[in-house]
């Protein structure tokens, strides 16, 4: 790890690299008011990553064990002020440009002025809003984004108002249910005082379901999540002939199939999902995909009806379900399997070691979401192997590939009947 000085020198070198790039592009230096580092060329993305990781390490070393633990322990206060800002729409109550008084914010939001000042001042410690006078505030880049980018606002709401309260019930759920793996014995079900699973519950609460989807989409936006990695990481060309079929299991509105249809010429994509989702997907399918992307209602916990398609694709399905449920999904495909039949799982494969770098925490963070909401888990390579083996030894793990720059991996499973 080196000394504080060597870390600081590394930081200095990387900071200079980024500053030099900005000045060569005649872009203003980055600040809390303007994020000039949002669109860096890919070769500088790794410089930014290194800078984030080494500044975090330097900070934690300087804080020492007590200071860095205190920061974790008090994190709930950051979430609290953020949640107040979200629920009372305080960001939307501040003019996009210029300043707004606490008095005006209070009249627009309905939150008493003294409370608005208190919670907003707390958030200012995180550079969310800035004060221009004791009575007035203006936006920073973060608060302006909350006011102007509905997807970001949904992501904040999902974390602060959905997942954080859910996390508060995890201990109770663990004590009551252990690792039952049952979707309706989760902290989410407890937090919402329901015996339904999260999917069933959100099915009855369309606005929260919309926010959940939109928030997750925001977290998984950007280069490292891009579906182009699913295209580049698998040899689709060798299947791209007339008559070839890919079944997109739990394919939602068909967005993955549409992306793949655009990248291939002949393959027919059959999106299977629950009846309501299939209806919506079919109704909103752009004309250009008619004949290439079809929809079919099918519950993946029942036996597959299609005969021997070329590929079954599961994106972001199995991480939502504990092993017994995933085994059921796989067993339901067995009657359609022939020697060499192929299943692709597009999932985040966790390292079998702790992620100690800040930029590598997304996988473990998603794993916490799985634990709290779904009673499931993100899996390591060994977990996938174990799952396949205990389902049926004829499901063979052929490969796991993580395309360069991708957070997700392609897990290729072959059926070997011999
Ligand atoms: C996390 S979403 C993933 C959607 C899509 N694969 C994607 O990557 O965008 C999970 C999907 O599983 C579907 N689903 C849940 N239970 C199902 C079941 N029993 N049978 C089929 N689909 C199901 C949901 O409706 C939802 O579309």
Structure description:
It is a single chain. The chain is an alpha/beta fold and 418 residues long. It is 48% helix and 13% strand. The protein has helices at residues 4-24, 42-73, 75-87, 102-109, 113-124, 141-148, 150-167, 170-177, 187-191, 198-203, 206-219, 228-232, 255-263, 275-283, 323-331, 362-374, 381-391, and strands spanning 99-101, 130-133, 136-138, 245-249, 268-273, 293-297, 311-315, 342-347, 349-350, 379-380, 395-401, 409-415. The strands form 3 sheets. A 7-stranded mixed sheet has the order 6-5-4-7-8-12-11, with helices on both faces. A 3-stranded antiparallel sheet has the order 1-3-2. Helix 16 links the parallel strand 9 and strand 10. The structure holds S-adenosylmethionine (SAM). S-adenosylmethionine binds next to helix 13.
Task: Give a short summary of the structure.
The chain is of the alpha/beta class. It has 17 helices and twelve strands.
Write the layout of secondary structure elements.
Layout: H1 4-24, H2 42-73, H3 75-87, E1 99-101, H4 102-109, H5 113-124, E2 130-133, E3 136-138, H6 141-148, H7 150-167, H8 170-177, H9 187-191, H10 198-203, H11 206-219, H12 228-232, E4 245-249, H13 255-263, E5 268-273, H14 275-283, E6 293-297, E7 311-315, H15 323-331, E8 342-347, E9 349-350, H16 362-374, E10 379-380, H17 381-391, E11 395-401, E12 409-415
Parallel strand pairs: 4-5, 4-7, 5-6, 7-8, 9-10
Antiparallel strand pairs: 1-3, 2-3, 8-12, 11-12
The structure holds S-adenosylmethionine (SAM).
């Amino acid at each position: 790890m080196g000394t504080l000085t060597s870390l600081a020198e590394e930081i200095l070198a990387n900071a200079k690299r980024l500053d030099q790039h900005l000045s060569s592009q005649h872009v203003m230096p980055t600040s809390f008011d303007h994020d000039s580092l949002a669109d860096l060329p890919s070769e500088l993305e790794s410089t930014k990553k290194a800078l984030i990781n080494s500044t975090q390490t330097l900070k934690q070393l300087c804080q020492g064990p007590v200071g860095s633990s205190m920061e974790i322990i008090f994190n709930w206060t950051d979430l609290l002020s953020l949640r107040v800002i979200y629920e009372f729409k305080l960001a939307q109550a501040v003019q996009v440009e210029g300043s707004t008084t606490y008095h005006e914010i209070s009249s627009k939001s309905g939150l008493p002025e003294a409370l608005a000042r208190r919670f907003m001042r707390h958030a200012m410690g995180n550079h969310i809003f800035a004060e221009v006078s004791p009575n007035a505030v203006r936006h920073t880049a973060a608060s302006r984004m909350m006011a102007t980018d509905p997807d970001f606002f949904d992501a904040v709401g999902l974390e602060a108002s959905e997942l954080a309260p859910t996390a508060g019930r995890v201990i109770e759920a663990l004590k009551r249910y252990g690792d039952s793996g049952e979707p309706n014995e989760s902290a989410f079900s407890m937090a919402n005082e329901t015996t339904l699973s999260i999917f069933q519950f959100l099915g009855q609460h369309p606005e929260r379901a919309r926010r959940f989807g939109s928030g997750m989409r925001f977290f998984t936006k950007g280069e490292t999540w891009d579906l182009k990695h699913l295209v580049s990481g698998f040899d689709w060309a060798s299947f791209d002939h007339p008559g070839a079929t890919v079944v997109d299991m739990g394919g939602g509105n068909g967005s993955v199939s549409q992306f793949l249809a655009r990248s291939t010429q002949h393959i027919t994509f059959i999106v299977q999902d629950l009846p309501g989702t299939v209806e919506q997907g079919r109704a909103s399918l752009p004309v250009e995909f008619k004949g290439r992307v079809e929809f079919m209602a099918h519950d993946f916990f029942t036996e597959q009806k299609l005969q021997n398609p070329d590929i079954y694709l599961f994106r972001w399905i199995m991480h939502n379900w504990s092993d017994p449920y995933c085994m059921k999904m796989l067993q339901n495909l067995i009657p359609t399997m022939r020697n060499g039949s192929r299943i692709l799982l597009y999932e985040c494969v966790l390292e079998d070691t702790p992620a100690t770098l800040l930029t590598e925490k997304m996988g473990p963070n998603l794993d916490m979401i799985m634990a709290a909401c779904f009673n499931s888990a993100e899996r390591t390579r060994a977990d996938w192997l174990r799952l396949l083996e205990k389902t049926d030894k004829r499901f063979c793990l052929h490969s796991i590939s993580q395309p360069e720059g991708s957070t997700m991996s392609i897990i290729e499973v072959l059926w070997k009947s011999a």
